[in-house]
Amino acid sequence: MEVASAVLFLIVILAPSLKKLIDSVAYRNKACGRAEVIRAQRGTEPRSRRVSEGGRDDG
Predict the structure, then answer these.
(1) pLDDT reported for residue 43
(2) Mind listing the pLDDT tens digit for each residue in 4-50?
(3) What is the DSSP letter of 55?
(4) How far is CA 48 from CA 15, 45, 53, 56, 58, in A?
(5) Rounded CA gap, 48 and 59, in Å?
(6) Residue 12 CA, distance from chain mean position
(7) Whether the Cβ atoms of residue 31 and residue 24 lie closer than 8 Å to each other
(8) Are 26 and 32 in contact, with CB atoms under 8 Å apart?
(9) DSSP code of residue 53
(10) What pLDDT score was predicted for residue 1?
């Protein structure tokens, strides 16, 4: 019984964080889809991100 109550307690505590994570992933996916539609309408290819060896974005 103690194990079941501990698991239930953890689920209740972690549920809001998990929901926020899922919402964040969904928002990013939606934004990526919108950007892809805009690029398709403009007829441009997506830019590739090049990262230098120092870890900074080249632009």
Answers:
(1) 86
(2) 999 999 999 999 999 999 999 999 999 999 999 999 999 876 666 55
(3) S
(4) 36, 9, 16, 14, 11
(5) 10
(6) 23
(7) no
(8) no
(9) T
(10) 81
Q: Tokens 């103690």 map to which residue?
A: 2
Note the pTM of the prediction, 2 decimals.
0.55
Question: What is the C-alpha to C-alpha distance for residues 45 and 59, in angstroms, rounded to an integer?
Answer: 16
CA 53 to the chain's CA centroid: 25
CA distance 10 to 41: 46
Contact by Cβ (8 Å): 38, 32: no
CA distance 59 to 50: 7
Give me the residues paired with residue 57 across strands: 51
Domain spans of the chain?
16-41
